[in-house]
Amino acid sequence: MRAKGTSAPVVVEIAPCSQNRLRTHRGPDLRTSMRHLTLALAALSAPVAAQHAMAVWPTQLGGNGHTYAVFVPGTTLDWTAANAAATAAGGYLCTITSAAESAFVFALVDDPAVWIASFGLYNLGPWIGGVQASGSPEPAGGWGWVTSEAMTYTNWEPGQPNNSCAPSEDHMHLFTNSPALRGDRWNDLSPGSCNLPIAYVVEFDTHECFAGTVAISSSGPVDVLAINGSAGGFDRRVDSVINDSFTLSMAPPPATSGAFFSLLGSFGAATGTATLPLPFGELCASSSITLGTIMTAPWSVQVPAGLALVGPFTLQAIMLTDPFGPTLATTNAVILAFVPSQPPIISSVSPSSAAVGQPITVTGANFNNAVTVRVNGVPVALSSSNADTIVFGYPPGVPCDAPLRVTNVNGQNATSVLNPTPVIQNAINASGPASGGATLILLGTGFAPGTTVTIGGAPMNLNTVMPTVLTGTTPPGSVGPATVVVTTPGGCSTTTLYTYQ
Fold first, then answer.
1. Number of domains the chain contains
2. For residue 3, is it within any domain?
């Protein structure tokens, strides 16, 4: 599973680029650099045979080109559950077949959040893909990898494997004999034996063309291309709702203020089986179209809503990371897929009432990038929005119980209420001394910061204002019943009675 397919080399003939394009730039070095970038784009037409932490082990640094991701689910789990999760994610529990791979994986997991101390004696690291075949001689016989790769390299903790907690411990994880240390050595463990790890490492055979070669280092290259702020995670895929807007962005390499690049696109979701090798990296698609040349990072553009794109598409770029080198690199690739919109869901509106201009937060799910909001039928400008949160300023003139409608790009909508009429469901300590100073608790709905309470026309000092609870200290009053008026910041009110004694 570690072998990586290769494509035939591409021979590129250097051709001079337009002098007009270079007229605004200074210096022969930059001119030469731009010539190299134009040259790399010309290669695209040549015929070719054809989440906690994540990193790519690049072949340029002796790696296998695979992607490794560390998952920390927040609870202990056994090897079987970790193995199932790895498979469901499209990978497998990582296999460690050399000292170099061991060092790479350990650098990824050398984090206290990935380890858990056991009995104050040991430190349990994440599960990996070692497994002992059933019926093998105990404790050291029959160990292999989940991928059926031979276990020619071993790195057991001294004294391991030893079945110390069960008659047959037949799964592998990273381990140290000190609760204060972390390391890359192995231990045998099984479900129900001693304590269990809290993390696991998944290896993906994703072609390294998806990682690109920008700022490549021992921890892998750096992602610079993003869609809606994401490089797509370990599967390098970003989903966008059909007809919704989305944002493409390109960051410059680390420690630089800018970089020239040319954005490329190809139809379909690249798999790495038909790549375009270049002297400075690989493009995930053997043929692409140029979407923009030549642009400068940092760069961002929002593609408007309403375009009936169906995709998927694979986006990648060639970047001039050092104009005076010159140094070219391929950026990370991202698959852009389009999915049907789900109906929006409104879970809460907070606060439910407010002074004009105060921020209102709508939480829920399935909000599109191009989502719109109307209050009492009037559109409101959004301060910000994402898939589960919308923020806007409280508009003027909102009547009581005004309908709030959230509408997605395809017309699907959800409704709630803004500035609801408050409701008092229960009054606790509804009577007290005429001298005041008693505690009154009102339970109900529709309360918001800025809500006021009067008793017999005198203001009550509020101690607590929550959406369903008001507490305060009663003012002095005349013996007998007095009207309690609760008024929200939006001017909506309700009443109950309080009795002075």
1. 4
2. no
Give 126-148 as a DSSP string: EEEEEEEPTTPPTTTTTEEETT-
The residue type found at 393 is G
Give 47's pLDDT tier (boundaries 50, 70, 90).
very low
The residue ranking higher by pLDDT, 261 or 23, is 261
- Write down how long the chain is: 501
Instruction: Work out the average pLDDT over 403-420.
Output: 96
Q: What is the mean pLDDT of residues 250-276?
A: 93
Q: Report if residue 7 sits inside a domain.
A: no
**357 and 430 housed in the same domain:** no
Q: How many CB atoms lie within 10 A of CB 340?
A: 8
- From residue 78, how far is each of 85, 126, 130, 238, 271 by CA, in Å? 11, 10, 13, 30, 32
Which region, left, alpha or beta, applies to residue 480 given φ > 0 means left and ψ of -120 to 50 means alpha? left
57 domain-assigned: no
Minimal CA–CA distance to 70: which of 38, 110, 122, 35? 110
Domain assignment of residue 5, yes or no: no
- How far apart CA 216 and CA 434 sit, in angstroms, is 77
- Dig out the tokens for 119 from the structure: 């009995």
Q: Report the alpha-carbon angle 62-63-68, nearest 5.
A: 160
284-327 pLDDT per residue, tens: 998 888 888 789 999 999 999 888 888 899 999 999 988 777 78
Q: What is the rounded CA–CA span in Å between residue 456 and residue 458? A: 6
- Would you state the structure tokens that stand for residue 443, as one six-digit string? 């339970």
Which residues are CB-contacts of 388 (< 8 A; sequence separation ≥ 6)? Answer: 363, 364, 365, 367
pLDDT reading at 24 higher than 70: no
Q: Answer with the one of 167, 189, 204 that is the final residue of a domain.
A: 204
Distance CA(213)–CA(284), nearest Å, equals 12
- Clarify whether residues 315 and 429 are in a common domain: no
Q: Alpha helix locations (H) across 43-124?
A: 79-88, 99-109
Which two three-digit tokens encode residue 370?
Answer: 């191009």
The residue among 204, 223, 249 that closes a domain is: 204
pLDDT at 40 over 80: no
Q: With bands split at pLDDT 50, 70 and 90, how would you rate the model's confidence at 28?
A: very low
Whether residue 321 sits in one domain with residue 214: yes
What's the rounded Cα separation, in Å, for the pair 342 and 327?
44
Domain shared by 223 and 333, yes or no: yes
**What is d(CA 227, CA 230) in angstroms, rounded to the nearest whole number?**
5
- What's the confidence (pLDDT) of residue 34? 52
Q: What is the mean pLDDT of residues 391-402?
A: 97
Domain encompassing residue 34: 19-52+206-339
pLDDT of 49 above 50: no
Tokens of 137: 């001689």
Q: Closest Cα to residue 437, out of 468, 463, 467? A: 463
The CB density around residue 359, as the number of other CB atoms within 10 Å, is 13
